[in-house]
Amino acid sequence: MFWEQQVRYAALTDVGFRRQNNQDACVVQLAPDAETWQQRGHLFVVADGMGGHAVGELASKIAVDTIPHAFDKLRQLNAKDALWAAIEAANAAIYDRGMQNKEFLRMGTTCTSLLLCPQGAIVGHVGDSRVYRVRNRLIDQLSCDHSLVWELIQQRKVHPRDAERMCPRNVITRSLGPEQTVQVDMEGPFPVLPGDTFVLCSDGLCGLLSDSEIGMIAGELPATEASRLLVHLANLRGGHDNTTVIVIRAGDIPEGAQNSDPVIVTRETGETGWWGFIAICVIAILFLTGLGLVSLNPLQRPAGAGLMIASALGLVGWAVMSRRRKAPVETPRVHDPRSTIAWRPYRTASARVTEEFLQYLARMEGELQRAATDENWAIDWKSLEESYRKAADFLAKKRLSKSLLEFSRVFDLLMVGVHTHRKQIQHETRWGKGANPGVKSRPT
């Protein structure tokens, strides 16, 4: 990746509809100049705290405070080792704080971090928060869930389709803080291509939206609009947990950009090309001719046998030459014992926008609009109806990306009314029904 590449991002955290406090936290630390970029790159972190009352909130805050600070101080280490050490430092800080007060004992947090640097994208990960990459309308999960469900699947004790039915989804097997030491997964570096979109999120998002839905939204919408729509949908599907998401998109490479290129392993595909096809055809013709002479004309059997032997020798010679020409060209790698993945993502799904998903958004909009009308929500109805009309028109014309963008604006407007209405209900529940604040009624 290059310093000159523009990186657009948006970070959003939301308490949800069921929780009283937000135990999620996130932080973004961008390199301020080219020199810092070469040494450290851009750092993004999401943490999801665990524990009653303010315990989880404290653990996630310690994580997002400690990791950037420790990472920046470890200038003597390369970027990947520095990130690994910074996550371990956060674990030590949370553990020490927990040992100081019995109410904080065994408090913990997940930690998912992404580093965009000259070597590419590096992931440091503990827990069940996730890192995704969206590229070419595919979404890849780059991190492994440290959860009971995933552990049983990897041990082949349950089938993936049955795992979530048989096992509680919220049981995690690894986190920062409860133990004095922690095993940190380090992934990458992965090459970063122009247009690549990365998503970091807590399980409040990925527990309620499918990988494909996350990929469609993050891959097609600008970062700010994508992060808002992702949180809106998580809340509309129950919002039973805190939701945090960071969406990052890598820009194009400007002309004249200079950088130390990452080490990338390249392999030939093994395709034979036209010359290989012609050679195979000639060998096949010689073999079939020889076979015909042997079978049909006793007098020509020696000649036929000779053609068959010649074709077999030709096939062997072509295979040897082809293997030499197509031998893999690899740049040597130093094995990293902390690496848990080398060549492929943990899961892949389609991120192509579908008409079915947009029709689902249209149905959800209709249900919300009926509730808004019945309960007299405070909504800018003129802007809402204009955006919905555009979304429907684009959908009818099969301009799906444009339709998705307009639907994101529709839900922005609707969610203003949802949140205002919820606050009003909470106020009346706590203090009793009093003066109703002024609202803008829908015109008849």
Annotate the secondary structure layout:
Blueprint lengths: L6 E8 L9 E6 L4 H6 L2 E9 L4 H19 L5 H22 L7 E2 L1 E7 L2 E7 L3 E6 L2 E4 L6 H7 L5 H7 L18 E6 L6 E5 L1 H4 L4 H10 L2 H14 L6 E8 L22 H24 L4 H25 L21 E4 L4 H21 L5 H16 L3 H32 L13
Antiparallel strand pairs: 1-11, 2-3, 3-4, 3-5, 5-6, 6-9, 7-8, 7-10, 8-12, 10-11
Helix pairs in contact: 2-3, 7-8, 8-13, 9-10, 11-13, 12-13
Descriptive terms for the model:
444 residues, 6-stranded antiparallel β-sheet, 47% helix, 3 domains, Phosphatase 2c, domain 1, alpha+beta, 12 strands, globular
Question: What's the overall average pLDDT, rounded?
Answer: 84
Describe the main β-sheet briefly.
6 strands, antiparallel
Helix and strand pattern: EEHEHHEEEEEHHEEHHHEHHEHHH
What is the terminal separation in angstroms? 55 Å
CATH-derived architecture of the largest domain: 4-Layer Sandwich
Number of helical runs? 13
Class from secondary-structure proportions: alpha+beta
For this structure, what is the CATH class of the largest domain? Alpha Beta
Fourth CATH level, the homologous superfamily of the largest domain: PPM-type phosphatase domain
Rg is 29 Å
Q: Extract low-pLDDT stretches.
A: 260-272, 326-342, 437-441
Shape: globular
Q: In percent terms, what proportion of residues is strand?
A: 15-25%
Number of domains: 3
Biggest sheet, spatial arrangement of strands: 1-11-10-7-8-12
CATH topology of the largest domain: Phosphatase 2c, domain 1
**Share of residues in helices:** 40-55%
Number of separate strands: 12
